[in-house]
């Protein structure tokens, strides 16, 4: 049990004193960058999906003749 308590105390001490935390402004900037990149990626995937859907409709119409 003592080992477990010591482990938690050391973990807490490391988090408080040894870890360097990223400043809030930088975190906000990075979060916005990730959101914009995700949005762009989603739009590209949507465009590809709609394009392939239309291509497949044309192919199926041609094959159904």
From TrEMBL:
Superkingdom of the organism of origin: Bacteria
UniProt keywords, alphabetically: Membrane, Protein transport, Translocation, Transmembrane, Transmembrane helix, Transport
The UniProt record lists the keyword Membrane: yes
Subcellular location: Membrane
Pfam family, one: SecE
Regions crossing the membrane: 30-52
The protein, known as: Preprotein translocase subunit SecE
Natural source organism: Alistipes inops
